[in-house]
Amino acid sequence: MKLILQSITVIDPKSPHHLKVVDIYIQDQIIKEIGKKLNVSGAKLIDCKGQYVSIGWLDLNVNFCDPGFETKEDIESGLNAAAKGGFVGVALMPNTQPALKSKSEIEYINNKAKGNAVNIFPIGSLSANREGKDLAEMYDMKLAGAIAFSDGTRAVQDAGLMSRALLYAKGIDSFIIAKAEEKSISQNAKMNEGQMSTLLGMKGNPTLAEELMVSRDLFLAEYQNSRIHFSCISSAKSVELIKAAKKKGLQVTADVSVNNLYFDDSALANFDSNFKLSPPLRTKEDIKALKQGLKEGTIDAICSQHTPEDLEHKQVEFEHASEGMIGLQTAFSLSLMSLEKQMDITEIILKWTDAPRKVLGLATQTIAVNQAASLTVFDPNAKWTLQSKDILSKSKNTALINQELKGKVISIINNNQLK
Fold it and tell me: Best label site of 178, 203, 272, 370, fewest CB within 10 Å?
């Protein structure tokens, strides 16, 4: 592949070309030249006037339902949606049937994703079958390519099991990704506990359920001197707890779902089951704290929390609907619209580029000559409307269909492919 991105603005503080308008010549996965008015025989010219380029984006929390629920999403459709959303890499949660619980499932994922423009990073199950009782075959999965370990949507309720998992992960140079929810407090409530849950007459899930688990797992990580990452935190108090832990020197990182940045619990006023999420949508005060946490670096990254569900599990009474919303194709837009008053475009992009790579322990990248061409091209000023026909996921469970969004992904360049 030989192509030239013409008149494109670079967003990469590590690059000597940061915020400059340049031409970028790419050949066989490598950036060969950066300059003005480049002209190379046989190269495809792409006019990028008004567009921006950064190193490729990475999503820390996606669900593809394969193996087991391929009617909702399979590896191919999920990776197509990821590419459309601007992602060159995705960390895949083990919420499948069977779970990603052994070497064979990790190898299955890697084999199905081979040759794709988007890299996949499987997260192995922390416990056997995600049942929260015994440790899974973590070492074998690490050797097969598991990037980290988690029970995904199931928070580990057994403190002893979490303690052992943290210690074992440390021993094999890996880490734990935790969902923070104390089930004896949340008790399968359907939305955030507060004024809106009272108004709607629904049982509420208090932020306390999350905060108790964040506190417990921080104590355990400190005791074992191990790394822990909290995925999709949602409350102001959780931000405070993680900030204090970082100040103390604990090896802790965190991300937040774009859903919890953009929507608050008032979105549930019409009982739209697309807004039934875990963690639930919280209050405007929580959102304010999450944004501040991102701005100051307490929260390291943003994720889409892409969770496909079919019609029969979503178009039912709110009480019986499954949790989750797809988000790969709209994640950038929601993050931009949520944060553009608090953070500049460079700060927002870093939450999709350098920050998630650091969390996963991946090598940093930059836009410079002789560096690998793993890039995302986007227009932060473009406005567009999500149409159902444009959704590449097999599932359509999103509240954003026919909504005008700001910030459009143009393409990705990765693995010697342009998509």
Answer: 370
